[in-house]
Amino acid sequence: MRPMQDVEKIGGPHISVYRTQEEFISIIKELMESPRTFSLDLENHSGKKKSRQFEETLKAIS
After folding, report:
1. 48 pLDDT higher than 90
2. Residue 20 gets which letter from DSSP?
3. Which long-range contacts (CB under 8 A, 24 or more apart) does 20-29 make?
4. Range of the domain at 16
C-alpha cells in the first residue's frame, strides 16, 4: 500500500511509511528515542479544495 498522493507530493522526512505492525512500532520507538521537529510548507495545499475534490469523488462512485 502506498501513501495518499497528496501526502507523497508534500513529501519530506516527516513522513514514515510502514507496512506491518512491527515496522510501525520500530518507527515509533525511534521517534521516542530521537524526537524531531519539522517545518512544513503547506501554502499550496488547500484543505477546502481537497474536501471539494473528495466530495466529487464520493458522488461519482455512489
Report:
1. no
2. S
3. none
4. 1-37
